[in-house]
Specification:
CATH topology of the largest domain: Helix Hairpins
Oligomer: single chain
Number of domains: 4
Radius of gyration: 48 Å
Shape: rod-shaped
CATH superfamily of the largest domain: Helix hairpin bin
CATH class of the largest domain: Mainly Alpha
Helix content: 25-40%
Strand order of the largest sheet: 3-12-15-14-13-16
Structural class: alpha+beta
Order of helices and strands: HEEEEEEEHHEEEEEEEEEEEEEEE
């Protein structure tokens, strides 16, 4: 009988322990379910942000274009005396020269000999002309006496005229030799910068051979390519801000708009004179540059640049709504001036936009607004 009662008591104790654990578990579950509504009713703010409203600003209207930098005008400096040896070269590429400055010198010995011969020919022709004039004068004085026939008198007069013509011919040859001597010195036709040099000491060049190439007055211009649709917005005198490939900036002004449009590209050239400043020395002919034409100003809705978030190639802003929840809105951005960005589409003028911290927000986040910024 004793062995039969022992298992029954152990079973009773086990059942009592299980009941106690069940009661404790039920009590803990009720406590958790009672606290759950409080957590859902008071969501925590993800971060603190500053806010602002879109403003109205006068932004400059600019038209961007690309083009090449070229010389305003180039002068080809060549030799006018052929068959002479180049004796001296006094200018090199990059030199700044002035008008009538000597750039090169040719050997002049043969030209000086020809010049001396021409002077002698002039003296001889003048002597013969004086003799012919005296004979003609004597013949005309004897015309009344009949000592000379009319034919003889005419011959003396013709000889006088022929001698005078020979003097003029000899004088022309003398001038020609003087010019040859003058051309043994190659002079700069205008002030400017030497952009190319083909002159070599000791070379014998022909007449008309190019020795130097000169950028006249050192002036450069930007030849911008503008589409036909935008060509009408540009006028002569429009200010231009140019940025070269090296990063240097130069100011310019439109000199002329091309009268024709290229039939293949449908683009037209706009010629912009570049100002000669210390910064423009970094701009060289042949460079490719990007520029902007200043076309005036216009009013625009703007927000701080910090408020615009770029994600997946699109622009977004976060507007703050009820209960400080933010909504992500896709916008179309326009001009950027300083720390302001123009908003073209996607945002109302009375919206409240998150600024500081906007880059860390997600759609639907709850934020805390900084009262100091407001």
């Amino acid at each position: 009988m004793k062995n039969l009662r022992t298992p029954t008591a152990a079973a009773a104790r086990t059942l009592g322990l299980c009941a106690l654990l069940f009661l404790l578990a039920g009590t803990d579950g009720r406590a958790q379910s009672a606290n759950a509504p409080k957590t859902a009713a008071t969501p925590k703010a993800s971060m603190t942000v500053t806010t602002t409203r879109p403003g109205q600003s006068a932004l400059p209207v600019r038209l961007a274009a690309n083009g090449n930098i070229a010389a305003w005008q180039e002068a080809s400096v060549g030799s006018e005396s052929g068959g002479l040896k180049l004796l001296e070269v006094r200018a090199n590429v990059g030199d700044l020269v002035k008008r009538d400055q000597v750039l090169a010198v040719f050997a002049s010995e043969s030209v000086q000999a020809d010049l001396a011969l021409a002077r002698a020919n002039v003296a001889e022709a003048q002597a013969q002309a004086a003799d012919a004039a005296a004979n003609a004068e004597r013949a005309r004085s004897l015309q009344a006496s009949g000592a000379l026939s009319t034919q003889q008198i005419s011959q003396y007069s013709t000889a006088d005229l022929t001698a005078q013509a020979r003097v003029q011919s000899a004088q022309a040859a003398l001038v020609q030799q003087e010019l040859r001597l003058k051309h043994t010195q190659v002079l700069a036709p205008d002030s400017g910068i030497i952009s190319a040099r083909s002159a070599t000491v000791g070379a014998v060049t022909g007449a008309g051979a190019e020795l130097f190439r000169l950028i006249r007055q050192g002036r450069l211009e930007w030849r911008a390519e503008v589409t036909a649709a935008e060509l009408g917005r540009i006028k002569a005198g429009t200010a231009v801000h140019l940025t070269s490939a090296s990063g240097s900036t130069v100011q310019g002004r439109v000199r002329m708009v091309a009268p024709t449009v290229d039939a293949q590209t449908r683009n037209a050239l706009v010629y912009v004179d570049l100002q000669a400043t210390p910064a423009s020395t970094a701009v060289k002919a042949g460079m490719y540059a990007r520029g902007e034409f200043a076309l005036g100003q216009s009013n625009a809705m703007t927000v701080p640049q910090q408020a615009v978030v770029v994600r997946d190639g699109f622009n977004y802003v976060f507007t703050v709504g009820k209960e400080n929840k933010v909504a992500q809105q896709k916008v179309e951005a326009g001009r950027r001036v300083g720390d302001q960005v123009e908003i073209l589409k996607g945002l109302s003028a009375d919206a409240t936009v998150a600024v500081a911290g906007a880059g860390f927000l997600n759609d639907g986040d709850t934020v805390r607004i900084s009262t100091a910024a407001q």
